[in-house]
Design brief:
With about 325 residues, the chain is of the alpha+beta class. The chain has helices at about 1-20, 25-30, 35-45, 50-60, 75-95, 100-115, 255-260, 280-285, 290-324, and strands at about 70, 135-140, 145, 150-160, 165-170, 180-190, 200, 210-215, 220-230, 235-245, 275. This is Sperm acrosome associated 6.
């Protein structure tokens, strides 16, 4: 119900701008309706009092200091509740024959204190990405905005020797939502260093935020792209330019090269990036690899090892007892 009231307050704020012709909007116009404010003035000065217009202008003027307030987007419901409580308090003052000249400035000062106590909006973290955690609500206009940063992150250079392993980590330096996050990989072949999406083709087998190529070959030279999405909405695109250098591995004999040429060996798009299945050593050395599935696998291996050790001890004990 509070969100419905908040949504209905925005059109009322538009009406108030036309009526009062104030130069800047205030939080008052975002979180209260025109009918609520008009009803308060009627309670303070009377239904048909000539001081109604003066009361309305005083109400708006008292909150001009909040016209440029920016708050954490997640805190807007708390601020709406605070304005609702303020309205109820003003109604009680009006019923007690209080003065609006005193009540309105006092209420505005209290709301300033409330705003300073709200959780602050987090700063944007450059250089890229749609950062929902930093979304802000602006009282000057009654709207929200996110960081003015591009979706495309700068290209990162990755250099490996031919025959070695190339690994890409699709990790951003800002907080991602916890649910419905997906990763998709693309490749622009031919040695291109680019962020132009028209050059990229999907890499079907690649999924997850870690991917690797082994062994890296000269044909893998180019730009790899990882797109992070939440429920089909792009959050960021990372780019990795892979430069493969050096001669063929020493173990690559002329016979092996001829055999591969006969088979027309070449990495296909579907085999370009293999899903990363880390070894036990890689799991322990790379904290990012400890995904829930990998943690479950480690726990299962530990439990199996414990059961085997228990069985061996029990068998030894049985053998020892039977022999004595």
């Amino acid at each position: 119900m509070a969100f419905l009231a908040l949504a209905s307050a925005v059109p009322s704020a538009l009406l108030a701008l036309a009526v009062f012709r104030v130069p800047a909007w205030a939080c008052l116009l975002c979180f209260t309706t025109y009918s609520e404010r008009f009803r308060l003035c009627q309670m303070f000065v009377g239904m048909q009092s000539p001081k109604l217009e003066e009361c309305e202008e005083a109400f708006t003027a008292a909150f001009q200091g909040l016209s440029d307030a920016e708050i954490n987007y997640d805190e807007r419901s708390h601020l709406h509740d605070a304005f609702t409580q303020m309205t109820h308090g003003l109604q009680e003052l009006a019923a007690a024959q209080g003065s609006f000249e005193v009540a309105f400035p006092d209420a505005a000062e209290k709301m300033k204190t409330v705003i300073t106590q709200l959780k602050e909006a987090q700063a944007c973290i450059p250089p890229c990405g749609l950062q929902e955690f930093a979304r802000r609500f602006l009282c000057k206009g009654c709207y929200s905005r996110v960081c003015d940063l591009p979706l495309d992150c700068p290209v990162q250079d990755v250099t490996v020797t031919r025959g070695d392993q190339a690994m890409f980590s699709c990790i951003v330096n800002f907080k991602l939502p916890k649910e419905e996050i997906t990763y998709s990989w693309k490749f622009a072949r031919g040695g291109l260093r680019t962020q132009d999406l028209s050059y990229f083709r999907d890499v079907p087998r690649a999924e997850g935020y870690l991917a690797r190529i082994r062994p890296a070959q000269l044909t893998h030279r180019g730009t790899f792209s990882c797109e992070i999405k939440q429920d089909q909405r792009p959050l960021a695109r990372l780019y990795f330019f892979l430069n493969v250098t050096g001669p063929p591995p020493r173990a690559e004999t002329e016979l092996q090269a001829s055999f591969r040429e006969v088979l027309r060996w070449a990495p296909r798009d579907a085999e370009l990036i293999e899903p990363w299945r880390p070894s036990l050593g890689e799991l322990l050395a790379t904290p990012e690899a400890l995904t829930p599935s990998n943690l479950f696998l480690l726990a299962a291996l530990g439990a199996l090892a414990s059961v085997c050790a228990t069985l061996l001890v029990w068998m030894f004990f049985e053998w020892y007892c039977s022999g004595s």
